[in-house]
Amino acid sequence: MLFRILLPNGRVSLYSGRWDKEDSPLGWRALVPSGSGGTTGIVVGVSEGETEREVIEFPDEAPLLNQWGLSLVEELSLDYLMHKGVLLFKLLPSAFLWKEEELLTIADIKPVGLDRKSLEIIEYVRKRRGVKPENLKKKYNPDLIKLLLKKGFLAIKRSWRAPDVEEKFYRLNLPLKEALKKVRSKEKKRLLVFLAGKELVSEEELIEWGFKRRLLNELLREGLISLEREHLSRQRDKGKPSVELVKRVFGGRVLIWSTFEKALQEIAFIAEQNLNRGHSTLILFPDYGELERSISVLNYSFGDKLIEIHSRLQARRVYENWFRAYREPVVVAGTYISMLCPAHSLSTVVLFDESSAGVKLRHVGNLDIRRASLILTKKLGASLVFTTPAPSLSSYYMVKKGRMNLEGEPPSPETTVIKRDPTEVLTEELYKQLKIYKDKDILFLVPKHGYSYVYCPRCETLSECPECGTFLTYSLKREELYCTRCRYQREELTCPECEGELEEVGFGLEKAVEVIEDNLGLEDNFHFSTHPHWESKHELVVILSADSLLSVPSYRAKEELLLYLLKAKNVAGEKLFVQTLFPDEEVFKALNEGATETIYSKELEERERDMLPPFWRLLLIKTTNRELENYVFKVVSPNVKSTYNVRENSYELLVRFRERKTLWKVKQLLKRFSRDIIEVKVDPF
User: Fold this and answer.
1) pLDDT, tens only, 127-168
2) Are 576 and 416 in contact, with CB atoms under 8 Å apart?
3) Which residues is 214 bridged to in the sheet?
4) Whole-angstrom Cα distance, residue 93 to residue 524?
5) Other C-beta atoms lying within 10 Å of the C-beta of residue 384
6) What separation in angstroms does the CA of 642 have from each of 194, 317, 411, 572?
7) Would you indicate the residue range of the signal peptide (predicted)?
8) Beta partners for 591?
């Protein structure tokens, strides 16, 4: 049989191989040869014909992806102009991307008569059970390594870099009384007693109980216990998982606007309903801190029915959990890499904290998890639930259009907006209030790292990063200028443009801490942060200044400020204080009056008028060809605006579009003008 296999480089190649399973090969993982050794691919189809390339192995005993996952990748690859293979392997856990690599290992020859350095090299390789040649040559003399290879003390072998995907189980080979007579060690006797009366015990469980692998190996050699291996992806039952569309359980699409605790309670209730019906729930967390905080609560509710899938989990555990979700109804809690998990009878997808900055995957072509979740649930016929401390404008728009139901009760602490002068960090009015509530648990917020911005009188502008154009931040502690976007650093405290002296402007978190310490002292109940974290709760929340969010040159500036204020309000148990230079700005007035929904409505009106998201999508094309704008205007979209980027010496074309067919036209544009186009970004901001 010929298999069409999607590779990590984005290409689809043909490989021959045997297929003796009853199921379709679509979605199965395959290890295949490549130019540099071997790599991992996914079967996306079958074909006819001949090829000399053969599949090395299908390493799993269940498909890695179901039809919905493959279809989702297909649609998203067009939506974000990415190669399917590149997108797929960016969304999958790295535990599934196996590569064959060349390693230096110890040969069978005994290292007799070698000098001390050669013995050190051999011991180094032995302890690591193989080392990449390039890594060993960085640490030791390449000529000496070459000599050890020539003399046969070192050998080269090819090995697949992959997690251990087999579970080891142990059992007694003899009746307990007979086995105990054959050992003297108390440790061995304790292990034999532990195994007695049990059908099989996993190695992981034995290690957790304090038994050493050395004991297991010794008892195996003595024939007192036996070892069985089971592949982690194997189905232990004969029934096949359901792949049919499931009925909605929770009323289609819901946006839950509430506190962290209440949102978690709602999700736990939904997941419990699903489990009772034999269905799974997928909970996606854009923020790892919120995932970590939620796990303990969900674990209490669901025990071993809760499985985690995220990059901080061991590769072996990710592998095991992935295929367990395929076999049985579970609650999957994970980051974006769990999105393609083929969960058994998936009936609800939850995006926890849909307004988190993490919903936009910058390293995956700006892919928006909200959009991906919406497409996935459409394909599955499943329910979609967003939870949020403050609704994003796009989600609020879905509510206004009747595409999503709004539920929950956002908290409403007493809110006070205080006018401050440009030179003030702590106003007299706020200082008096804080003296009264000094013993309360207080969170101080400033949406800026460092000590302050810096101003160059000679250039008459705020000092900018020479790499990306972002305003530079001054850090008093580190005594340097740095960029919060591209990590540019400058030790000289002078203007990067003209070398002139700089002046402090505004203030960041470092200066805020300094001023609070001078006026109120630093108490254990005082907390400082650049952003409010939904999973935390404080009696008082104090925003010392959030005006800098309005100065960001972005159409999303007002939305970002509103979300910041509402998130701070969400974590304030009793009171919220907000200092600002602009108390008459409509966002602050609406916050003070409890009328923030009017800001959402006004912002939507402005966005629709200006042809901006969520009504339109944006596409940014960077090019060296000045004439490309005319072609884009005529062929791709008439809604295009061109600007010249002096720093990058390129032209930037911002295209507004609504229809997906525009993206097909852009794909043709990329083929025709590949030499002229530097970069294309979908949803760039």
Assistant:
1) 887 888 889 999 999 999 999 999 899 998 887 776 666 668
2) yes
3) none
4) 40
5) 23
6) 74, 49, 44, 44
7) none
8) none
Burial, 143: exposed, middle or buried (Cβ in 10 Å; 0-12, 13-18, 19+)? exposed
Residues 488-494: what's their mean pLDDT?
84
Q: Scan for tokens 């194997």, then name that residue.
A: 234
What residues contact 243, with CB distance under 8 A and at least 6 apart?
A: 66, 67
- The strand pair at 346-352 and 280-284 is best described as parallel
Q: Which of 600, 597, 595, 542 lies closest to 569, judged by CA? A: 542
Q: Tokens 């090395």, residue?
A: 56
Instruction: Tell the residue number behind the tokens 């160059």, with chain if given.
Output: 456
> Is the backbone peptide bond immediately before 614 cis, with ω within 30 degrees of 0?
yes
Question: ∠235-236-242 over CA atoms, to 5°?
Answer: 55
Alpha-carbon distance of 172 to 222, in angstroms, equals 12
Could you tell me what percent of the chain has a pLDDT over 70? 95
State pTM to two decimals.
0.82
Q: What is the C-alpha separation between 567 and 523, in angstroms, rounded?
A: 24
Compute the 3-state secondary structure of the chain and give helix, strand, coil in percent, each to the nearest 5. 35, 25, 40
pLDDT above 50 (res 124): yes
Residues of 422-458 as b/e, b for ≥16 C-beta within 10 angstroms?
eebbbbeebeebbeeeeebbbbbbbbbebbbbbbbee
Under DSSP, the state recorded for 358 is G
The DSSP 8-state label assigned to residue 501 in this structure reads B
Residues in the chain: 685
pLDDT digits 0-9 by tens, 188-241: 888 888 888 677 887 877 876 778 888 888 899 899 999 887 765 554 443 333
d(CA 445, CA 543): 5
Phi-psi region for residue 594, left (φ > 0), alpha (ψ -120 to 50) or beta?
left
Q: Annotate 264-326 with three-state secondary structure.
A: HHHHHHHHHHHHHCCCEEEEECCCHHHHHHHHHHHHHHHHHHEEEECCCCCHHHHHHHHHHHH
How sure is the predictor about 243, in pLDDT bands with cuts at 50, 70 and 90? very low
**Residue with the two structure tokens 């639930």:** 385
Q: How far apart are CA 101 and CA 659, in angstroms?
A: 44
Give the residue carrying structure tokens 């599955």: 380
Which residue is it, tokens 């500036």?
557
Dihedral sign (CA 132, 134, 136, 142): positive
Query: What does the pLDDT look like over 596-648, one tens digit per residue?
Result: 999 999 999 999 999 999 999 999 999 999 999 999 999 999 999 999 988 78
* Cβ proximity of 34 and 25 under 8 Å: no
Task: Check residue 502 and give its pLDDT.
Answer: 84
The predicted pLDDT at position 548 comes to 82
Q: How far does CA 674 lie from the centroid of its chain?
A: 31
Residue type, 368: D
CB neighbourhood size of 201 (10 A)? 19
Mean pLDDT estimate for the chain: 89
**Contact assessment for residue 662 and residue 670, using Cβ atoms and an 8 Å cutoff:** no
The amino acid occupying position 14 is: L
Amino acid letter, residue 222: E
Write the CB contacts of 551 (distance below 8 Å, at least 6 apart in sequence): 557
